[in-house]
Amino acid sequence: MTDMSVAPNRSRTAAARAVDASKVYGGGDSEVRALDGITVDFEAGRFTAIMGPSGSGKSTLMHCMAGLDSLTSGEVFIGETPLATLNDRQLTELRRTAVGFIFQAYNLVPTLTALENITLPLLLGGSEGDRQWVDTVIDTVGLRDRLDHRPSELSGGQQQRVAVARALASQPTIIFADEPTGNLDSRTGAEILTFMRRAVSDLGQTIVMVTHDPGAASYSDRVVFLADGRIVDEMHEPTAERVLDKMKHLGE
Amino acid sequence: MFRLSLRNVWSRKGRLVITAIAVVAGTAFLNGVFVLTGTIRQSLSQVFADAYADTDAFVRSSRVIEGDFGEEARDRIPVEIVDTVRSADGVLEADGYVVGVAVVTFEGTPLGVDGPPKFGASWVGGEVSPWDIDEGAPPVAPGEVVIDRASARFGGVEIGDTVTITTATGSQEFTVVGIATFAGADSFGGVNWSFFELSVAQQLLAGATDALDAVLVAGDDGVDEVALADSIDAAIGDSEVEVLTGTEITEESQSAIQRALGFITIFLSVFALISLFVGSFIIFNVFSISAAQRQRENALLRAIGATRGQVTRSLFVEAAVVGFSGSLVGATAGVGLAWALLALLNAIGFGPGTTDLVVGVQGFIGTMFVGIGVTLACAVVPALRAGRVPPLAAMRDVAVDRSAASRRRLVIGGIALGLGVLSVAGGFSGSSMLLGLGIALVFISMVIVGPFIAAPVAKSTSPLLTRLRGAAGTMSARNAARNPKRTAITAMALAVGLSLMIAVATLGASAKASARVIIGEAFTADYVVSEKLQSGFGLPTAVADALDGAGVGDAVGFAGAQLQLNEQDDSGVRDWRAKAVIAVSPQNAAAVLELGFVEGGFGDLTRDGILYAQDKAQRDGLVLGDTVRAKLLDGTEVDLTVQGIYSDDTFGNLMVDRALFDGQAFPLFDFAVFARTEGGVSPENTSALQAVLDEFPSAKLQSRDEFIDAQDDQVDGFLNFIYGLLGMSIFIAVIGIVITLWLAVYERRRELGLLRAVGMTRKQVRTSVLWESLITGAVGVVFGLVLGTSLGWIIVRSFRDEGLREFALPASTIATASVAVLVFAALAAFLPARKAAKSDMLDAIATT
């Protein structure tokens, strides 16, 4: 691992990046700058955590980077593709092929089986995908014997594992995770985070995770701290204690 | 709590509106029927009030034969009565009156349209008549006729034109000398009228100048109607002549119209109620979905202390608000609907000529009651279910309705179906009550077991749809199957309309096929001559005579007539009963009609004989050679000998020689003349017959095949009318699909957002909603096909003895209707699909 800095390092391959990204809600006196000129790279093959107090813009940043929401100004790229140039159909296709998602809840389609949920992006694209890869993913998250179950027949942890598997199934350029353990007890949460860690370390995937839990952040390679829509700091090889300490300072 | 529910209704205005749509559509139809028939009734009543406005007394024969459908044949009175009436106290003016069927033809085209009758009458000038000469002069000499303004306009007839008048006595040419208006209006109830000088009219309509149909009397100024009638009655002193006051004759005419319109009101209301019934499925569905979607909210209310009853009542309050506002809007829209229909009827010549709507308070309030009642009834189950929600459900996530596949439901549905089938089977033995009950039970059982059928049908489409439309297709099939009750009810709403359509089509096709077979067997003529315009009367007997006398072949006219037979009823009471009989000329009848004589035949029929259909003869315990006592219109009694018994009663179950009616005031009109020619149908024969008919411009010549096809056309015309009426219920069912899908999309907005986030394109979202709608439509089609064909079969089977001998499935009609339903289902998906495609992804992944 090489030392990383806040400044964009163009010599590294960025799986996604934002350049002077701003998102403004409302206008005049009621104007809210959710993102205020953020420039950041998320390097391929690394696990990055985004942290910050409520209202710091961490979720908005993720939504905009993932093509779920649009910027007021600035640019975001997935790989080398500038999202602003894409129309809705192209954007949807990009999310399907190049982006994986893990949400806090409502991750799964209740009418589909676990396997169908895992392969949903592939199915939507009408492709079989890489069978071998999907098998590897399924084994990694340990869902082999639950594939025919509906989400309602799975525990919360199992549902989240299906979500992780789905995010991995299409071998996307980048995976965005939004508080993936927010709804889980700590033991199950740790399990999910371990799977995510392994996806990066063993399978070479790229994950960006929004979280407010220092413990979760400690599974990442790098933590980016946001406050008031700006990047205020970052930390490499984080530990829960160091992150917690940093958060306390930010909160002041 | 009451305020809360009201606020609830208000905060969901959109939902209020869509729920109300189902109520609005049904109630609009119902009140539309009431207003339409009320307006027609009022305008016709007014017409009769005008007609007799200046008549203070009405003198006519009391000898009358009344048929089963309110039609009557009345004897005539001697012409001398007019003088007797004039001599009575208080009489200012008395005019002899003759009226009969008369078709006016100008340049080969009969004046008027199919349906309304065409009457000729003696011209009554003076005060008594509501008719006034608008242009020209009244008829005073032979060869002169006056027609009404509407008829003149219809045919472009002007004063001085020559027209042909066809009456019971034949066809003659007249010169139009005047154009008349009725109480200032262009026509009298849509009837086409022609007027003649009295003796001309007598000769023309009755064939003799010694009889009148009635005497119209105007009394001296200030004379009392009743006193006038009494004095006239005393002057005549004949029990066979009755004197009515002007009020009585007006009311009698009006009540005849009321009765006829009463049937129409009931007939149309049935279709309105079917629409409401279909609407009730939708209303029930919306309330169920609403209650399910608000489960958390209701559970919260329960958790903070609301009683079960309060939660239930709050849903009822909503239902009442929806029912009231929907019915109010619907009943009001019905007035608009009636106005539009009336304008349409007027435009095609069937209307009363007025658009002054008569909005009955009773009809309006009745409609409101029905609408509110149906809405509340539909809310019962959802409201009770809402009340039963455990407070703990507030902590749970979205609840899934899993009650679809309960064993109890299957058992109850199975029992209902079994009972229904048994009742139908029992009903075949003659009880129409059992039959109706059975059909109702079959429908109900389908509603109950619907979910068991809907889910597998929906699921079975999954592999095909996945192949066709990939993941979007899979989603459609799963979504349609995820809530089997909802899908089943939405589909059932469609199925009700579709199945009735299929049943009616089956009935029609079977009727056509049966008619073909029966006519094919019984009908040995080569040509048929009938009326050009269907006015319900027919051709003068002169047509048959002329054709028969032309030497082209044998021609026989068939006339409908009435006489009274002395018959015993089931309890053994002997009484005079009015009977419809067919009057024929027996000499030639055997050549054109094969009735399957068991004994005797047309050749044996004489003036004092009668032919019986086998069924009727058996019922009445009559055999060949027995006599039955008959009474004719003029009171003459004759013994008729049973001279033949036949098996095919398609044309009627009693036949007599038309000579029996010689000298009776009952004018015979042939509903058809059958002709058999040397060499069958050929151009020579056709032109020879047509040459004879040139004299009778109201007659129409058809070959045997053309005639049979024309029967089909008549059935088709009626079928199209019924399809139109049933179309309303299909329309409501389609609205039901829109509403159900819309609510489902709302319910799944998070899921849809998620799907969009992980890469479902808008197009795929739309596709999946479209196919879900199509699956619902397909389930409806499956239900509709099963129910419709079985219902059709049941009805055809139960009318087997009444002549529906063939069962025919109209494959192309059924296919067209099914495809149309699917097309409608696809169209219904449009708005919900658009809404689904616009699902907000960020809303979907929001954690709260």
Give an account of the 3D structure.
The complex is a heterodimer of chains A (252) and B (848). With 252 residues, chain A is α/β, with parallel strands linked by helices. Chain A is built from nine helices and ten strands. In chain A, α5 runs antiparallel to α6. The longest helix of chain A is centred in the last third of the chain and has 16 residues. Chain B has 848 residues and is of the alpha+beta class. Chain B contains 24 helices and 27 strands. In chain B, the strands form five sheets. Chain B has a six-stranded mixed β-barrel with strand order 6-8-13-10-12-11. A six-stranded mixed β-barrel of chain B has the order 19-20-25-22-24-23. A four-stranded antiparallel β-sheet of chain B has the order 5-15-1-16. In chain B, α2 runs antiparallel to α19 and α7 runs parallel beside α19. The longest helix of chain B is centred in the first third of the chain and has 48 residues. At the A-B interface, α2 and α4 of A face α13, α20, α21 and α24 of B.
Tell me the span between the first and last alpha carbons of chain A: 32 Å
**Share of residues in helices of chain A:** 25-40%
- Strands side by side in the biggest sheet of chain B: 6-8-13-10-12-11
| Strand order across the largest sheet of chain A | 6-7-8-3-9-10
Strand content of chain A: 25-35%
Label the structural class of chain B: alpha+beta
**What would you report as the Rg of chain A, rounded to the nearest angstrom?**
18 Å
> For the CA atoms, what is the radius of gyration of chain B?
33 Å
Individual helix count of chain A:
9
End-to-end Cα distance of chain B, whole Å, is 27 Å
Poorly predicted runs of chain B are none
- Using the alpha-carbon principal axes, give the shape of chain A: globular
Please trace the helix and strand order of chain A, writing H or E for each element.
EEEHEEHEHHHHEHEHEEH
Report the β-strand fraction of chain B as a percent range: 15-25%
- Main sheet of chain B? 6 strands, mixed, barrel
Biggest interface found:
A-B, 35 and 28 residues
